[in-house]
Amino acid sequence: MLQLNLIPHALTQPVVALLVLDAMLLAAAVIDWRTFRLPNWLTLGGAAVGLTMSVLPEGIGFFESLLGAGTGLIVLLPLYAMGMTGAGDIKLMAAVGAFLGLPHVLFAILCTLIVGGIVAIGFAMWRRSVARMVLNARDLMQLTALAAVHGERPQLGLISSIGRLPYGICVCAGTYAWLLWVYVIH
């Protein structure tokens, strides 16, 4: 019987690299919570440190780190293009990818998107805006479909926002969820 194993190999990273990743994620969550911005010194600096640490003994290797950073950036780029995330959020995920490499960054992204969805629903409930959020989702799908048919970019400015989320917190929690799975549960 053919057995498909979707869980990637164990993540081999020196403890110091994981501690630096941890510090970067915590700093991003706190800064984003307070300012709704993620500074370049943290995101781009984090990516550079992740790439550098990948060549340490027991590191994931530079090529895998580079693939992880690129994947973290490219996968979230459509969300940025649609105005659903900020540029700092995708740069933070690229930095996470530099530390985790490919394929682990894909699972961290999946966990982040799940956390982000839960947080968005909670935020909408807290603001008593669930109906508006559902209508926004409907409008987003309609505008995107119409734009695709006409070969244009969707006019997302027509959708009224229910508020801003510090998505760096979701990236932090999603990455922690994946690391918990890799190192504790799995």
TrEMBL record:
Q: Which InterPro entries match?
A: Prepilin_IV_endopep_pep, Prepilin_peptidase/N-MTase
List each copy of the Prepilin type IV endopeptidase peptidase domain by range.
Answer: 20-121
Q: Which GO terms describe its biological process?
A: signal peptide processing
Q: Which UniProt keywords apply?
A: Membrane, Transmembrane, Transmembrane helix
Highest taxon, organism lineage: Bacteria
Q: Which family does it belong to?
A: Belongs to the peptidase A24 family.
The name this protein goes by in its record: Prepilin type IV endopeptidase peptidase domain-containing protein
Which organism's genome codes for this protein?
Ramlibacter tataouinensis
